[in-house]
């Protein structure tokens, strides 16, 4: 390993702006690291596309980041993590590749006392069963209930994340899987979509104190930090910078992205790229 390798940026990509929640967690865990974030906003959402198309998109997005000299690739998209991770690892080996599914599943299994867990996500993620399979790899005896919560994406993108209306919608989705005092009630809830963390307060209010929320963005950031430390690639000095890439709609990327990143994004910091 060359000393300069530590200075290389970390590449992060998503189908759009939801992955900025992962970037936000990464920047919190790794304040000295530089990042290049790519949002494939021209082809969002990935969840409605075939596995073949998603894999092709993911390989194309990764190529842009690899060409910019990244030292690690973070797949900040649940759909791409579920269907394209092996293809990305094979195409860009020995570059370390981390997705959002495995860290979230591992944390869920570690934090659940009863083994009764719940997963919420988009329809594509839940239908594909990636979290369910990953949880069973870590904990074969787990009892899993999964539910798509499609409206959560729209709520988050509109910035409607608190209040009675939001909690009523959250309750409508969650009560079938978390309601009642049954001994099989899940004690751990995985936020299996990068759009969902902004809704954490409303979800926590509805779920109650007996349910632990697992944010796949936070768990992924910890996994990335641990991997960099083990590989000797952690950059410990200085203040990191972030460069943004988008494939369409810079104005919307900045406007909606602010909700997920938690701070304003200047259009001057966003580069338009063609995949």
Tell me what the structure shows:
The structure is a single chain. By secondary structure, this protein is an alpha/beta fold. It has 2 domains: 3-100 and 218-272, Rossmann fold; 102-216, Rossmann fold (3-Layer(aba) Sandwich), CATH 3.40.50.1860. The chain has 11 helices and 10 strands. It has helices at residues 20-29, 51-66, 78-92, 101-111, 123-128, 130-138, 151-158, 164-178, 200-207, 216-231, 250-261, and strands at 10-14, 35-39, 72-75, 97-99, 116-121, 143-148, 188-191, 212-215, 242-246, 270-272. The strands form 2 sheets. A 6-stranded parallel sheet has the order 4-3-1-2-9-10, with helices on both faces. It has a 4-stranded parallel sheet with strand order 6-5-7-8, with helices on both faces. Helix 3 links the parallel strand 3 (72-75) and strand 4 (97-99). Helix 2 packs across helix 3, helix 4 crosses helix 6 and helix 8 (164-178) packs across helix 9.
| CATH C-level label of the largest domain | Alpha Beta
Please identify the oligomeric state. single chain
Report helical residue fraction: 40-55%
List how many beta strands DSSP finds: 10
Class by helix and strand content?
alpha/beta
CATH architecture of the largest domain: 3-Layer(aba) Sandwich
Rounded average pLDDT: 92
CATH topology title of the largest domain: Rossmann fold
Q: Which sequence of strands runs across the widest sheet?
A: 4-3-1-2-9-10
Spatial separation of the terminal alpha carbons: 31 Å
Number of helices: 11
Number of self-contained structural domains = 2
The stretches of 5 or more residues where confidence is low (pLDDT under 50) are none
């Amino acid at each position: 390993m060359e000393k300069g390798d530590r200075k290389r940026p970390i590449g992060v990509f998503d189908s759009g702006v939801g992955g900025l929640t992962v970037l936000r967690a990464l920047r919190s865990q790794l304040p000295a690291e530089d990042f290049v974030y790519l949002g494939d906003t021209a082809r969002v959402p990935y969840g409605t596309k075939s596995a073949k198309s998603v894999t092709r998109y993911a390989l194309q997005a990764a190529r842009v980041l690899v060409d910019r000299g990244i030292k690690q690739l973070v797949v900040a998209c649940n759909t791409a993590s579920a269907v394209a991770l092996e293809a990305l690892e094979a195409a860009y080996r020995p570059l370390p590749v981390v997705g959002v599914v495995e860290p979230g599943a591992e944390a869920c299994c570690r934090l659940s006392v009863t083994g009764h867990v719940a997963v919420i996500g988009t329809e594509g993620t839940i239908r594909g069963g990636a979290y369910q399979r990953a949880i069973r790899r870590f904990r074969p005896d787990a009892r899993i209930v999964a539910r798509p919560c499609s409206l959560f994406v729209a709520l988050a993108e509109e910035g409607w994340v608190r209040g009675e209306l939001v909690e009523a919608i959250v309750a409508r989705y969650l009560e079938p899987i978390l309601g009642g005092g049954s001994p099989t009630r899940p004690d751990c809830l995985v936020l299996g979509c990068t759009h969902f963390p902004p809704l954490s307060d409303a979800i926590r209010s509805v779920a109650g104190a007996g349910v632990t929320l697992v944010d796949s963005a936070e768990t992924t950031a910890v996994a990335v930090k641990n991997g960099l430390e083990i590989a000797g690639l952690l950059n410990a000095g200085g203040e990191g910078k972030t460069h943004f890439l988008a494939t369409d709609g810079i104005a919307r990327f900045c406007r909606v992205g602010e909700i997920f990143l938690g701070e304003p994004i200047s259009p001057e910091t966003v580069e338009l790229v063609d995949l």
